[in-house]
Design brief:
This protein is of the alpha/beta class. The chain is built from 15 helices and 23 strands.
Length: 568
C-alpha cells in the first residue's frame, strides 16, 4: 500500500464492518482486532520506488489520481510484466493531479473501463454548470442534496463550493455528513504532498481542506426551513445519510438532487437518473420524486480519451479490460485494437484468461552501431527530401524506432547484453569450447557427457572488441602546441598514457618504446591495447586503435573516456 492508503484503510474497513454488522446483521464478520493485525503486515510502497518481494518479483507504484493514495502497480517476475491500474483519472482536478506512467512496455495492461465510451466535456464548463445550478436552487429557497463518496469527490466538490461561497459572499449554510468524510479530511491535510501543485502552493497560507463555509451535518437539520446545501454519503443513494435525506427532500419540487458520480444499475441513484417518478426505497416504502434531478459527472474515473492516453504511455503488448459494462468494453476493445494494433481482451467475471507472451532482451547499443543506423536514416531522409509530384513524403522515423542490424552479445548476469556492429569484433575470435580426449568427429555426440572442468578454454579463446578512433591531426597539434614534424598520433598516445598513470586502476601494465621515446603500444590491465595503426589509402587521417576483451569492458570504458578527453 501507499502511505496514504495505509493510513486511510483502517477507517474504511472499520466503517465497512459496522455497516455489515449493525445495519445488515452479518455474522462471523472480521473484528476490529483483525483489522489492526492486518495493518501490521502492510509494507508501504512509495511512488516510483522499486520493491523486490523476492529474487524475481519486483513491484513499482505510479501515481493514479482518482483518490488520495491511489496508485497503479507495475509488477515484473522474471521476463514477464503486468501493469494493474485499479481506478485512475487522467484529468487533473482541484486537489489531485493526473495519472501518469513510464513507457514500461508491460506484457499485459489491466485497465478499468468505467467510462469506456464516454468523452467528457471540459472540466471548467462542468464546474460552472454545477455552481450555477446550486446557486439558482438556493436563491429560490430550495435545498440541494449532493450524494458523494467520502473519499475523493467529497473533497473535490467541497473545495469548489467553499471557494465559490467566499467569492460570491453567500451565507446559505453548507454541510457535509460528519463521520467518515471528516476523518478522511484529516489525512488529506496530513498527506498534502500527494495533492496537486495548486493545493501545495495555497497550503503556505491556508490549508484548503480547512473549509471556511462548510460545517458538519446533523440529522436534526434535515427538517429545518430555508435553503441549504448538503454533501452526504454514499454516492449511489443505496443506504446511509444520503438516502435518508433524499427520502425527506424528494417530494418537494423546489429542491435539487445533483448526482456527480457513477451509479450501479439497481441502486436508488440509478433509478432516479433513469427518470422514475416513484422509487422503491425498500420493500416497505416508496417515495414520490418531484425533486429536480441533475446528472453532472465529476467522477474520478478516466474517460475513453484518458484510457487511450494511458495505453499510449505504457505501450503494452496486450490489454485486458475490466471494471466496466460489457457493451462499453466491447466498443472500446475494437478501438484499442484498431489504433494500437495489440491484442485486447474483455473477459467475463470469473473467466480464466491465458495470454502468450514473448521475451525481450534488453541490450546496450554501441555507439558505432547507432551511428551507422543514424547515417542510413539521414541518407533516407535526404533521398526523400525532394519528392516528385505524385509521391508522398514519408514521415521521419523517430530516433527511438530506428531499425538496426547488429550482433547481440548476451550478458552473464553481471554485465548487460550488448548490441554491436559486426565490424567491432572478429567472429573468428568467438570462443569454441572443446573437451580434451574427444575426437572432432565424435564431439557432437559426446560433448554432453564431457566433464565441465575439462571445458575450460585457453587464454586466447576470448571475445575481443576493437575500435578505431579517427581524429583531426591539425586541430590536435594546434591544441597541444606540436610542430609539424611531430607524429601527432604517437604524441596523442603518449598524452593518453600520462593521464592513465594518474588513476591506479588504469595504470598501463606495459609500454613498448621506440627510439625517440614515444610510446607505440600501451597495454592496460590484462587485455586492453592502445596502438597507432599505419595509415591506409582509404584513410589518411591519424587514428588510434583500441582493443579489449569482454571481461574487461568496464575498465575499457574508463580508458575510452580518457581517449576522448585527449582527442576531443
Amino acid at each position: 500500500m501507499t502511505p496514504p492508503t495505509k493510513a486511510i484503510c483502517p477507517i474504511l474497513l472499520e466503517d465497512f464492518r459496522k455497516v455489515a454488522i449493525e445495519r445488515k446483521g452479518e455474522t462471523g464478520f472480521f473484528t476490529s482486532q483483525h483489522i489492526k493485525d492486518c495493518m501490521k503486515k502492510v509494507v508501504p510502497l512509495h511512488l516510483h520506488e522499486t520493491v523486490w518481494v523476492d529474487d524475481e518479483l519486483e513491484l513499482r507504484a505510479y501515481y493514479a489520481g482518482h483518490v488520495l493514495g491511489a496508485a497503479m502497480v507495475y509488477a515484473r517476475c522474471g521476463n514477464e510484466s503486468v501493469v494493474y491500474t485499479g481506478d485512475y483519472n487522467m484529468t487533473p482536478d482541484r486537489h489531485l493531479g493526473a495519472a501518469w506512467i513510464d513507457k514500461v512496455r508491460p506484457d499485459v495492461l489491466i485497465t478499468e473501463t468505467t467510462y469506456g465510451t464516454t468523452i467528457r466535456d471540459s472540466k471548467r464548463s462542468r464546474e460552472r454548470d454545477f455552481l450555477e445550478k446550486v446557486h439558482r436552487c438556493v436563491l429560490r429557497g430550495g435545498k440541494v442534496l449532493i450524494p458523494c463518496f467520502a473519499l475523493g469527490r467529497a473533497q473535490e466538490l467541497c473545495i469548489l463550493i467553499d471557494s465559490y461561497w467566499e467569492r460570491m459572499g453567500l451565507t446559505v449554510p453548507v454541510y457535509f455528513s460528519a463521520g467518515l468524510t471528516e476523518k478522511a479530511n484529516r489525512y488529506y491535510k496530513l498527506f498534502i504532498n500527494w495533492t496537486n501543485q495548486k493545493v501545495k502552493e495555497s497550503f503556505v497560507n491556508r490549508n484548503p481542506f480547512d473549509f471556511k463555509y462548510i460545517k458538519p451535518w446533523s440529522r436534526d437539520y434535515v427538517d429545518l426551513p430555508g435553503p441549504m446545501v448538503v454533501f452526504a454519503t454514499p454516492g449511489m443513494l443505496h443506504i446511509g445519510m444520503s438516502l435518508e435525506v433524499f427520502r425527506k427532500w424528494a417530494p418537494d419540487e423546489r429542491n435539487m438532487l445533483i448526482m456527480p458520480g457513477y451509479c450501479v444499475a439497481g441502486t436508488v441513484g440509478a433509478k432516479v437518473l433513469s427518470g422514475m417518478k416513484v422509487v422503491e426505497i425498500d420493500q416497505y416504502s416508496q417515495v414520490q420524486v418531484n425533486i429536480d434531478v441533475q446528472n453532472l459527472s465529476f467522477s474520478a474515473h478516466a474517460d475513453a480519451k484518458g484510457i487511450m492516453e494511458l495505453i499510449r504511455q505504457a505501450s503494452p503488448r496486450n490489454v485486458v479490460l475490466v471494471h466496466g459494462e460489457k457493451s462499453r468494453m466491447s466498443y472500446l476493445k475494437s478501438k484499442i485494437m484498431g489504433e494500437f494494433g495489440c491484442p485486447c481482451y474483455d473477459p467475463a467475471n470469473g473467466e480464466l484468461l491465458e495470454i502468450e507472451t514473448g521475451q525481450d532482451v534488453r541490450a546496450l547499443m554501441s555507439d558505432q552501431l547507432f551511428q551507422a543506423a543514424w547515417a542510413k536514416e539521414q541518407e533516407r531522409r535526404q533521398k526523400s527530401a525532394v519528392p516528385s509530384e505524385d509521391s508522398v513524403v514519408p514521415a521521419a522515423t523517430p530516433i527511438t524506432q530506428l531499425p538496426v542490424r547488429g550482433v547481440l552479445l548476451l550478458g552473464d548476469g553481471k554485465r548487460p547484453a550488448r548490441l554491436l556492429d559486426p565490424s567491432e569484433f572478429d567472429l573468428d575470435d568467438i570462443p569454441v569450447v572443446s573437451a580434451s580426449g574427444i575426437e572432432a568427429d565424435d564431439r557432437s555426440d559426446s560433448i554432453v557427457a564431457a566433464d565441465t572442468e575439462e571445458l575450460t578454454p585457453s587464454a586466447s579463446d576470448q571475445v575481443v572488441f576493437s575500435t578505431r578512433r579517427i581524429f583531426d591531426g591539425a586541430e590536435l597539434a594546434e591544441r597541444m602546441g606540436l610542430s609539424s614534424s611531430v607524429d601527432v598520433a604517437a604524441a596523442a598516445l603518449l598524452a593518453i598514457r600520462e593521464l592513465l598513470l594518474i588513476d591506479p586502476a588504469t595504470q598501463p601494465k606495459d609500454v613498448d618504446e621506440i627510439s625517440d621515446k614515444r610510446a607505440s603500444v600501451v597495454r592496460v590491465g590484462r587485455s586492453i591495447e592502445l596502438s597507432v595503426p599505419a595509415k591506409t589509402a582509404e584513410c589518411e587521417l591519424p587514428s588510434l586503435y583500441v582493443s579489449w576483451a569482454w571481461e574487461e569492458e568496464e575498465l575499457a570504458t574508463q580508458v575510452l573516456v580518457v581517449i576522448n578527453r585527449v582527442l576531443g
